[in-house]
Amino acid sequence: MSYFDTSLEFLKGVGPQRAALLQKELDLHTFGDLLQHYPFRHEDRTRFYAIREVNESMPHVQVKGKITNLEVIGGGFKKRLVGVLTDGTGELELVWFQGISWALQKIKPQAEYVVFGKPNRFGAKLSVAHPEIEPLTSANEKGGYLQPVYPVTEKLKAKYVDSKLLAKLIRQVLEASQSHIRETLPAYVLNKQNLLDKKTALQGIHFPTDHNQLVAARHRLKFEEFFYIQLRLIKMKLVRQEKFKGIVFNDTAILTRFYKEHLPFPLTEAQKRVIREIYADMKSGKQMNRLLQGDVGSGKTIVAFICMLLVVGSGAQATLMAPTEILAQQHYVNLKKYADKMGVTIALLTGSVKSSQRKPIHQSLEDGSLKILVGTHALLEEEVKFYRLGLAIIDEQHRFGVAQRSKLWQKNETVFPHVLVMTATPIPRTLAMTLYGDLEISVIDELPKGRKPIKTMHRYDSHRLQVNGFLRTQLEVGRQVYVVYPLIDESEKLDLKHLMDGYESISRAFPDVAISIVHGQMKPEAKEFEMARFVKGETKIMVATTVIEVGVDVPNASVMVIESAERFGLSQLHQLRGRVGRGADQSYCILMTGNKLGVDSRTRIDTMVRTNNGFEISETDLQLRGPGDLMGTQQSGALDLLIGDLAKDGEILKQAREVAQHVLESDPTLEKPENRTIKQQIESLRKSIVNWTRIS
Asked: For a Cys-Cys bond, which of 331, 412, 429, 555 suits 583, CB 3.0-4.6 Å?
């Protein structure tokens, strides 16, 4: 066992109880974990400010001066201790609402102190609440250091484990572990990338001597983290390519016939490029594993069908799995139009297909006469057996876990099918490189010709009458309208009330118009029924919660009104907007908000109004929300980042990926002496660990 695997309870000042608490609250078990509990910021205590320089916009300041006055004011819950600090340039008020008797014992009027805290302004006075305070001494009068600030929880603070104590414990481990810290990157990489060595980087991230060292330490540790994650992903990809031979599909006769006789519209350049990339994969003899990204309405379905034809033409079968029945149904209807023209057999398998209808599907699938099967999770059932599955397409990847995906491609006994993963959720490049680094990525980044971009407008609740007037003009020319309400997590009852109130006010505003309503608490059959009425045009306005985010195409629906738009995330707003604009008519998206908007909400709304580009939107979303929220829970295991930030460190990630690629291309098994360091690092870790930069 290495030094870094030592349990925290054996560290001076921790003991069994604190160790259990650190484990529960921060997932810190060992010395190594503690050393990699990095500070999220540093407080600058290197300089003193004169009080006249201090203003309320500063995050925190350090001043020194004399306490000239100290008194207790008010009584009961309004009781507080107020002191006045002066340095000859001005006065600063110090306030304590708690721990008053402790402060009175500690602080002596007319003595000199160093004070640190966040300045606030109340009227003409500047004040600091609950400042950190210590007597002025010869040791601290020149200013201090960059103080690390660590993530802690309220429970830890209640047990007197704060950021300062963590700093003390980390300093202890760091000093004692100098002889145990190994370099984890080869010398040629350090030199070429101009990186600090590991020891200096660890020292510099926790207790830097100055800002420059802190920046260099962060850069080194981020580079290392991304390098090992990319190394792992690229290695997985290479191993898979070696191990999993793919079926060769290169018979294009049926495909050429479809192109010449039945293609309903010319393909965009982006669609053609993606088809070429997929065709190259399918005839390479290696298993394809490709992610196809394309905004809502970019024409992924026709690309999927063309790929299916390639497979069917070579005597194999294809399947497409969607996350909901309604979406599977829609894919089936769209694909069937093309399949019928080509004389290709196609069937739909979902949870609601009766067992009497299932039997013939299972049989024809097994004997190979059924060529294309579209469905939901029902495709994963044991009794679904293929004669020869050549291509598995998975739609809306983020709704399926990795285990479900692999279940699908294990349907073949001997050869793995090619895999195409489709998503309409544009993923920023940095995130895609990390989450799907083992997949090749194709992007459809242009809309079909003739498609008019959706006009997006922002309106406040006070403009309700104007908005209703606009909706009426749209309804009069025969269009349909979506009105979407947010889901407020805390209370479904509240959601429902919000939705029902909205439904009532729309019914009052449009008494002569047929209205559908759809929400999460309805039974699936009722939901499907209401959706179907809207699709057929029997109802003209659809009032719904976000249930409609993934799903139905209604070419006649040309207006999307999103209520309380400030409550939605950016990618969700973009997904919802994509529900309109499916036909040739001009479509509109109206974002309704209250008058008061926070900074982030304002950025989201402005971004939506400014652009229709899903990738630009996803980049902004990543910066606002961070990667965790964008990935969905089942993916979060893919990302065990300790210091890297996908929203901000795209450039470092790119460099690290290039270096990792170069290392594995020139030395796939890491046998060369110069790569011994990398090999040792990987071998020293537990197999279960995702992030290969962990200290162990």
From this structure: 555
